[in-house]
Design goal:
FAD/NAD(P)-binding domain
């Protein structure tokens, strides 16, 4: 049952917009969700690729059991069961230059005794080599990861740098040391339970998008696809109207707008906003090949062009983050180059190269450098009824699934205000708190 409050207009149906809409609807707010395209999910979706003749994800996203906001979101929309839990907290790697293979295995509990075991840590490293990572927590706001951890030591090359690039989509020599520490503290710093990999059983849309849309429809949320927002009408310190291709939508005195669009779009609509303005590319390659039923579901590559390879039902997918060095190469060249690493990692023939789809995202995420972090806004703006959501908004997370979902929840909480009778600074917990059944499902996955 709706409250007497006004409508919250959420523009953008990526994960930030979807999570904002879910949180609002769960708290009985009237919501209208707009999306420019004919599909939801943004950078986190699946689609049928006509050239490959199968369904693929537009990118690869590895969820971890420590991603609390994402798991609460999935529990709310009834999608926890669509995840496939990796049977072990294990991260396999292969060195394409030397042929060496190893598996990093964090232990249960917060004390990292796994670094004492040669079978669990990176080969060629000693337990004492891991101690300098603690310096990250004292890093200054302008300090990069390389300035703290160095670059020539084997541990940086074989673990820290690959994790930095994967999590921040930024090279270690540029990436913020503080932001990387935030990731480590929430994952490896909490032990194996927080690091357990969780992969969609079918695809990104089947886990993150389709269940959300279905749940929102049960809550009578008005979802409008093909709604391109051209401009905002500003009236003193508030937004008074949304100007779509189809015409204006007036905002009443009690209405709120959540802009859940990419940073570059938000800045175009509201030029006074200060947002990140330097970006980092990602290149993905999707190969149609026979299922590799016995192969590990993912593997990290050191010393090659590929960085992470994911084995799926009919597809093997490769992700190269911070891909400035290869993003301008042709699709044909990239297809052959990346397949070499796939073939080596999974013991497959190097020729012929299977059918491949190359997906380039030149502005995949903001550059996670210290300077760009200073440009991240919070959810509130100078306009009283305009809030921001998106992976570029400052949640303490980089531009990840967790960051996008957390930003949507934060914006929704600002629109909802503090719970009745609570102090002004007290906010609702993410997704309004999970039900007992939802909490049990979340704990089971961890």
């Amino acid at each position: 049952m709706m409250t007497g409050a006004g409508t919250v207009h959420v523009v953008g149906a990526g994960l930030a917009g979807l999570s904002a809409a879910v949180e609002l609807a769960a708290n009985d707010r009237r919501v209208r969700l707009y999306e420019t395209s004919r599909y939801a999910g943004g950078r986190c979706r699946s689609y049928l690729d006509a050239e490959l003749g199968c369904r693929i994800d537009n990118g690869n996203h590895l969820l971890l059991a420590g991603n609390r906001a994402a798991l609460r979101y999935l529990a709310r929309i009834g999608a926890i069961g669509t995840l496939e839990r990796h049977p072990d907290t294990a991260f396999p790697f292969v060195d394409a230059a030397t042929g060496e293979r190893w598996i990093v295995r964090p232990n249960r509990g917060v004390l990292p005794w796994w670094i004492l075991s040669a079978r669990r840590r990176v080969p060629g490293t000693r337990a004492v080599d891991y101690l300098p990572v603690l310096r990250l927590r004292r890093a200054g706001p302008s300090t990069t990861v390389t300035e703290v951890l160095g670059r020539e030591v084997p541990l940086s090359q074989r673990l820290w740098e690959p994790l930095v690039v994967a999590a921040l989509n930024t090279g270690a020599e540029v990436a913020s040391a503080r932001l990387f520490w935030r990731i480590l503290a929430a994952t490896l710093g909490r032990g194996a339970a927080a690091c357990r990999p969780l992969l969609p059983r079918e695809g990104l849309s089947e886990t993150f998008v389709d269940p959300a849309l279905a749940w929102l429809r049960t809550q009578d949320v008005d979802i409008r696809f093909g709604a391109r927002l051209r401009a905002l009408h500003f009236d003193a310190n508030r937004i008074s109207a949304l100007l779509f291709d189809t015409g204006p939508t007036e905002l009443g005195d009690g209405d709120t707008l959540i802009l859940a669009v990419p940073a570059i779009v938000a800045a175009r609509l509201a030029p006074a906003l200060r947002v990140p303005d330097h970006y980092s590319p990602i290149v993905n390659a999707h190969y149609r090949c026979l299922p590799l039923a016995e192969a590990v579901p993912f593997i990290g590559v050191i010393g090659g062009t590929a960085q992470w390879i994911f084995r799926k039902d009919q597809v093997v997918s490769v992700t190269v983050s911070a891909a400035n060095e290869i993003v301008d190469r042709s699709a044909e060249e990239l297809g052959e180059l990346l397949w070499r690493d796939v073939a080596f990692a999974y013991h497959l023939p190097a020729h012929p190269v299977p059918p491949v789809r190359i997906v380039k995202e030149r502005r995949a995420t903001f550059l996670a450098s210290p300077a760009q972090l200073l440009r991240r806004p919070g959810p509130r703006t100078q306009w009283t009824n305009l809030l921001l959501a998106g992976d570029y908004v400052d949640t303490g997370w980089p531009a990840t699934i967790e960051g996008a979902i957390d930003s949507g929840v934060a914006a929704a909480n600002e629109a909802l205000g503090p719970p009745p009778g609570a102090p002004e600074r007290q906010r609702r917990s993410p997704l309004g708190g999970a039900t007992r059944a939802e909490g049990e499902r979340e704990r089971a996955l961890q």
